[in-house]
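Record UvrABC system protein C, 596 aa.
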Amino acid sequence: MSDPSSIDVQISALPDSPGVYQFYDADGKILYVGKAKNLKKRVSSYFNKKQEYGKTRVLVKKIHSVKHIVVATESDALLLENNLIKKLLPRYNVMLKDDKSYPWICIKNERFPRVFPTRKLIKDGSEYYGPYTSMKTVRTLLDLVKSVYPLRTCNYDLSKEKISSGKYKVCLEYHLGNCMGPCEGLQEVEEYHRQIADIREIIKGNFKSSLQFFKSQMKELAGKMEFEKAQRIKDKIDILENYQVKSTVVNPKINNVDVFTIISDETHGYVNFLQLSHGSIVRSHTMEIKKKLEETNEELLQLAIIELRQRFNSKSKEIYLPFPIAVEDDVKVTLPKLGDKRRILELSERNARFFRQDRFKQIKIVDPDRHTKRIMAQMKADLRLSKEPTHIECFDNSNIQGSNPVAACVVFKNGKPSKKDYRHFNIKTVEGPDDFASMEEVVFRRYKRLLNEEEPLPQLIVIDGGKGQLSSSLRSLDILGLRGKIAIIGIAKRLEEIYFPEDPIPLYLDKKSETLKIIQQLRNEAHRFGITHHRNRRSKAAINSELESIEGIGKKTAEQLLKRFKSVKRIKEATIDSLAESVGMARAKKIYKSFH
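=>
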């Protein structure tokens, strides 16, 4: 049995999602923080290939454990990596340890506001938008703003008194048409602020009018044969169209806050804790709590909040939660419903869900029996069964335009295929393509045989089809006296509805649930197994008919030839003498003549 703490098991359980990974040594000290478009591939690459640089080889030798935080996009991963490196100062990170931060766009709190890029957030009432992962995006946005709206670039104090006293004179920017001259009172405050309102919309991502302006400019330049200038405009359009407005990782409006969410199953709860400082995520931690009998999510989360805030010495006066919980008197509880706060809560929930999935993957590797028991218990609960379905059988019909109707029965034991127990059925009593009657025949034959041979019966039968196929199967169970002794369900392909006997309303399982995945795997395996047998029968029938179409060659002769030569191709290539050894010279000549 593998060690659940081994690095191989930790890597195998990582998700294929964007996020940030953290390497720790045996003493629990942080070694390195990195970002990834695909966490599993990126972390695996450290261990799957020989590292080119000596520093990286030393790092890999020291890695004892891996932690990760899942985010929505690669852009978010880049921002979160920056925050964590500045907070944790890992030994092997060099590039982002300085205090240089990502750029923002500032709309200055002034009578005639300036719009400019900055890396410092000053709380003077100014508006800040961002952060941006690329200065190129910031410049493109500001170029767009300046090309559409003429704004001042000087840093004069444009108070009403100083303008009316004639203290300032217009500069070259005014003569170039880049500024409307508010310093000499040539532009009204109201008109300037209307432009600023439009600029806010552009920065927030409402580019519709601006994009129309750029596209018309591009067409105009192309019409004048100025293709290089048109291409530059096109590059700006592409960047703006691909620009991501919001980041859930950093938001200057959200100050020091703790975020808690919980995901739970039958036996455990998984609580994620995100700590935000000045709008940036500086910590993510998920803890697993074993449930006591009938313990609710509210009770588990209340315990986890106390423990996690004490463990990480959090003094935040505000907490974001998915539902109301009693906390300390001096702490404000917020239940976000929409906007940036809601996105932060969803990010925390996503990390709790991924942590739970990782634990399941690790358990599957290190303790398969526990994994199987958990899945069986989950299926019993989801499908309202009286017993855990350790033995499941699934039936599927295959026929094309009524030819060679066959059926397949596949068997799963402890949630895994038991291929030695698979069975094929050639439909005997049904004429033409009748799925209902075929299903009735096959189910009857299967369980009549099991009863006669005193073989163990399954706990669950899955029928590939809706209410019609399920009713036909039930008739067979009634005849055999097995109604109520074996649970039976039908699965319809279109919306994956689960049908129960005598219940007209289907059950819809969560598309991500393990119960539905096992039922889908059963259905797909039955279809694959059945269609393979059906193709083989069709091929055999086609081969036999090709040989039998030769005058003087019957079914027995055709079978005799195939037994000896294995295929029609070899029969066609055979000499008259070799054919005669099997079927005699007279028939050998007829066969040879028909193929040549």
